[in-house]
Amino acid sequence: MTPLAAPTTTILVTIDEKTYSADPGETILDVCKREGINIPTLCFLEGVSTVGACRLCLIEIEGTRKLLPACATVVAPFQKVKTNSDRLKKNRRMTLELLFSERNHICSVCVANYNCRLQDLAHEVGMDHVRFPYLFPDCNVDGTNKIYNIDHNRCIMCTKCVRTCDEVEGAHTWDVRGRGFESRIIADFDEAWGTSPTCTLCGKCVSVCPTGALWHKQSVQNNMKKSPEMVSELTAKRGRKG
Amino acid sequence: MSKKKLATVWLGGCSGCHMSLLDIDERLLELLKLVDIVKSPIVDTKEFPGVDVALVEGAITSDEHLHEIHNIRKKTKILVAFGDCAVTANVPSLRNPIPMKDVLSRAYIEAESVDKGQIPCDDAILKLLPRVMPLHEAVKVDVFIPGCPPSADLIFYVLSELVNGRIPVLDKERLRYG
Questions:
Q1: Which of A13, A50, B30, B59 has its CA 20 to 30 A from that of A232?
Q2: β-strands B51-57, B76-82: how paired?
Q3: Chain A: nearest CA to B116, how far in angstroms?
């Protein structure tokens, strides 16, 4: 095995036929963001840990058969990366279709309509319909919190809320139960959000949620604006990067 | 060039897509130079005729819709899923996770406006399907136009392309759910 370059050396990587220099330890997504190369992301949030859960930022690396998430793949010397091949485009659309078919996403009656990362990405990749049968799972809406609601119909399990609550607010109210299709975001030990003794009502989870799954009670259809950058700015000011 | 035949159909939807179609205003007159609307909620035709293009609004909610969409497919060259209900099943599909018995009971017995109601069960009335479907789960769809409703400009673009023999492409500027 070739030893990795010494930490101080600059690494050269080729992304879509152009060569860029990167620092050791940087991810491919870091480099792309800096260089203005658009890679769609959904579960990535600057300032909290990376999970690589949504699979939208998948990229191709020459010599590797598997597609790898740009957010969780560290640059290596002379890597050749493709970010927008036909295979990737096909894959991104399929990933989005699977997300849409897995829960009950009904844009027209959603608080986040026109302000939704999932919806924006569907437009971006040209998803004119979903080829998989919709599963229409029976999902709860927890309205017990006095300021916010959580609607599991609209949740895509990106876990931005879980990571933000734990790593930024330090409350760890949110977590995940179950696996795969059955997995759900839970408050504490799967209790009503309204009676959670750990929730501080800070609302950071609501700000980072990319869809209409977490929302302010006073929001009505179409008018919920999200501000995930608030959490990124907060962590940057604390001198920490995800 | 002979005029193309256009049908517009209203299945399980709110007719908002048809309202948006009317919102193309005076441009309708330009279109009518190129097409004849031979079947529509605003045209008094009983049987569905053979057409070049059919815009189908709404989801498939009942046995009647299912029968109708198969009939439309047989007689249509280009079938267009018109609006979010046709493309995704949208609002009508809100009932899908709920057992049918509870849905009917809520509407016909428990509703605040109902006094001693009962669930209609006459053979003459349509039967709701256990699950509301978008069109493409039942038949092959050629063109999808999402939107709740699709904007008048988008409808005009799509129809202009179709009547001129082209298949419209909805890029990210034109694609719009909700």
A1: A13
A2: parallel
A3: 29
Which ipTM value was assigned to this complex? 0.93
- Is residue A37 within 8 A of residue A30, CB to CB? The reply is no
Q: Determine if residue A29 is left, alpha or beta; phi over 0 gives left, psi from -120 to 50 gives alpha, anything else beta.
A: alpha
Question: Domains in chain A, start-ordered, CATH in brackets?
Answer: 11-84 (3.10.20.740), 108-228 (3.30.70.20)
- Say whether residue B125 is in contact with chain A using an 8 A CB cutoff: no
What secondary structure letter does DSSP report for A225?
A: P
Token pair listed for A211: 């869809």
- Pairing relation of β-strands B4-10 and B35-39? parallel
- The reply to whether residue B97 touches residue A137, judged by beta carbons under 8 angstroms, is yes
Gap between the Cα atoms of A27 and B98, Å rounded: 44
Taking only the tens place, the pLDDT of each residue in B55-94 is 999 999 999 999 999 999 999 999 999 999 999 999 999 9
Residue indicated by tokens 């059955």: A182
Do residues A156 and A122 make contact, with C-beta atoms less than 8 angstroms apart?
Answer: no
- Are A108 and B170 within 8 A, CB to CB? no
Position B163, amino acid: V
| A184 sits in which H/E element | strand A184-187
Contact B93/A138, CB-based, under 8 Å? Answer: no
- As separate numbers, helices (DSSP H) first and strands (DSSP E) second, chain B gives 6, 7
Chain B contact for A220 (CB, 8 A cutoff):
no
Handedness of CA A26, A31, A33, A34 (dihedral sign): positive
CB–CB of A88/A67 below 8 Å?
yes
The string of DSSP letters for B33-71 reads: TTEEEEEBTTB--SSPPPEEEEEEESBEEEHHHHHHHHH
Amino acid identity, position A138: D
Question: Which of A15-24, B83-92, B112-121, B141-150 is predicted with the least confidence, judged by mean pLDDT?
Answer: B112-121
Contacts of A169 (CB under 8 A, 6+ apart): A200, A202, A204
pTM, to two decimals: 0.93
Residue B75 token pair: 């007689």
CATH code that applies to domain B4-95+129-163: 3.40.50.700
The full set of domain ranges for chain B reads 4-95+129-163
DSSP state of A3: P
